[in-house]
Design a protein that fits this description.
It contains 21 helices and 22 strands. The chain is α/β, with parallel strands linked by helices. Strands 1, 2, 3, 4, 5, 6, 7 and 8 form an 8-stranded mixed beta sheet that branches. An 8-stranded parallel beta sheet has the order 17-10-9-22-21-20-19-18. Helix 2 (63-78) runs parallel beside helix 3 and helix 9 packs across helix 12 (360-377). The longest helix is centred in the last third of the chain and has 18 residues, at 360-377. The protein binds acetamide and zinc ion. The site of zinc ion has 7 residues, from helix 11.
Length: 551
């Protein structure tokens, strides 16, 4: 719990003592993001209070986590947790959780009337998402005013995600964020029913994960001696660095799992590897000693696949990565790998001759396939950026389209699984307004909320090809984002838009999204999240902003 929330809980519980029982009315609106499949509003409401019990009638892996989430919310709004009583007979006035095996793994049904609430799901994940929806149904005043009884509008909701993969990528290479900030971002994702956290952990400018067998990756590779000023205009001359210990990684993976989010690590192979080369120069084509990169951009200096040592390195690193991350998918990068050095390198050229590879694109495909085979043998699957299509790709590789939707379309037509995260819609580091003078300095580009929302993951695909689209992802690269407040500002509410594409497709409607967003943004205020207000005119009002500050 953040300090702000701890204080809020304390204030509320203190005031509760004096003003026990004040009713917080509902405004009757059901504004949920992402949009649920079906919402039927009914007359009346349920009154949630501290004597309300939670009655789970089945056990499932993770159920404690779903209940803990709800009781954390209850601490905020009621100043105390609800009693969980699995064996309770009377369901009247309580929250009952029942199993319905006919529902999908993440689906739920919610039925609320004056006599109680019922959540139906087949797994704890479905229960967790029902509670996420329920949190958005609490009147905002429940979080900001002391009250002992809270109205929730009577309704029936049937809900299930359209896409199984709903992701967000956070770049730690250019700037690193603290474990607490990563966890805070995971909370934001959970609020949006996002279920994949793609953690970009290695870059030219910094290696961010402890690997026991290669200690220099963090001793040397995690620190750059300087960072660019502005858009590569100069250097600040200040050392910058940091990395996550394996213990911290485990902590983040567990925290995410408790929120039904899988952490997918990305280890960049074979490009974006200058920090690794600075640590172990023998992995490069020339063996030259480099420094960890101090400039943004695409670097020619990549790992040498002509040398067997490179594969030993990748396999060793991935072995430790697999021990840390239970995720079925491991992201192996593959983007922006210039072939300049490989063309001149005797080892690379000898490898190409031995393997009968026609060009350097095929040499990269050889790397991808060999690394994929290694991971497959250990029960894992790969995701790679869309450049893995060049030089030929195996059918079992999942392609993450970033350069444009056409690469995702190409992959789906080939029969490869695809995650759509084209920069045209999903790059959260791009400007969100044309009025760039009034925006924090950014890498460029232009992805307003409407454009993020406009993503159509099935564009140009027939029904057979559509089956290969696993889902969507928003990407937050951090060349120009060094503070967590700024990271949130770039993420919200564009990630809210992408989350709705992933969950609610094809029932999405931008006008309806804009009508529901103010309510979600109230929740952002409650939790102290920083967010962009371009499509929230009421929040641009300085009075409203001052109000939000008070919360
Ligand atoms: C990328 O933006 N280089 C994946
Ligand atoms: Zn080489």
């Amino acid at each position: 719990m953040s300090a702000k929330r701890t204080l809020l809980a304390f204030v509320i519980s203190t005031i509760l003592f004096a003003a026990c029982g004040k009713l917080i009315p509902t405004d009757g609106r059901i504004d949920i993001i992402p949009l649920p499949g079906k919402v039927t509003s009914n007359e009346g409401h349920f009154v949630l209070k501290s004597s309300t019990k939670i009655i789970p009638t089945f056990e499932a892996e993770g159920m404690q986590n779903a209940l803990a989430f709800w009781n954390d919310v209850m601490l905020d709004v009621l100043g105390q947790e609800l009693i969980v009583e699995p064996g309770a007979k009377s369901q009247s006035g309580n929250i009952t959780i029942v199993q319905d095996g006919t529902l999908g793994a993440e689906a739920y049904r919610l039925k609320i009337d004056k006599s109680g609430m019922q959540i139906a799901a087949s797994t704890a994940g479905g229960v967790f998402y029902a509670f996420q929806t329920l949190r958005q149904m609490l009147p905002t005043a429940a979080f900001t005013e002391a009250g002992g009884r809270i109205e929730i509008p009577a309704c029936e909701i049937e809900d299930a995600p359209h896409f199984e993969y709903r992701g967000f990528m956070f770049d730690m290479g250019r700037h690193i964020f603290s474990v607490q900030e990563v966890k805070d971002m995971i909370d934001i994702l959970a609020m949006h029913k996002i279920n994949k956290f793609h953690w970009h952990l290695t870059e030219d400018q910094g290696w961010r994960i402890e690997i026991k067998k290669y200690p220099k990756l963090t001793e040397i590779g995690s620190i750059r001696k300087s960072s660019p000023i502005g858009k590569n205009k100069g250097q600040d001359g200040k050392p910058y660095g940091g990395f996550f210990t394996q213990e911290e990684v485990r902590d983040v993976v567990k925290y995410a799992a408790e929120r039904f989010i899988t952490v997918i690590p990305e280890i960049e192979i074979p490009g974006h590897s200058v920090a690794a080369l600075a640590s172990y120069p023998e992995l490069g084509c020339t063996g030259e000693q480099y420094e960890v990169a101090t400039w943004w951009g695409v670097d020619d200096r990549v790992i040498c696949p002509g040398k067997e040592l490179a594969f030993t390195f990748w396999e060793d690193v991935l072995t430790e990565v697999m021990e840390l991350f239970p995720s079925e998918y491991i992201h192996i990068g593959g983007d922006e790998c210039p072939k300049t050095y490989w063309k001149k390198c005797p080892d690379c050229q000898a490898r190409m001759r031995r393997e009968g590879l026609k060009n350097e694109e095929e040499l990269q495909a050889y790397v991808t396939k060999r690394v994929e085979k290694f991971l497959n043998e250990h029960g894992r699957k790969i995701i790679g950026w869309d450049e893995i299509l060049q030089g030929g790709v195996t059918k079992s590789a999942t392609v993450m389209a970033w350069r444009g939707p056409q690469y995702g379309i190409e992959a789906a037509k080939l029969g490869n699984h695809v995650i759509m995260s084209p920069k045209t819609n999903c790059y959260l580091d791009y400007y969100q307004s044309r009025d760039v003078k009034n925006e924090p300095f950014s890498i460029g580009g232009y992805v307003p909320v409407e454009q993020a929302y406009a993503l159509d993951p099935y564009k140009e695909l027939n029904s057979e090809e559509q089956k290969y689209v696993l889902g969507v992802q928003g990407n937050l690269w951090t060349e120009y984002i060094s503070k967590y407040d700024h990271a949130m500002y770039m993420t919200l509410p564009r990630m809210s838009a992408i989350a709705e594409v992933g969950w609610s497709y094809p029932n999405k409607n931008y006008e309806s999204f804009l009508e529901r967003l103010p309510h979600l943004s109230d929740l952002f205020d409650v939790y102290g999240y920083n967010y962009a207000k371009h499509v929230l005119p009421e929040k641009q009002n300085p009075v409203a902003e001052a109000d939000a500050e008070q919360k």
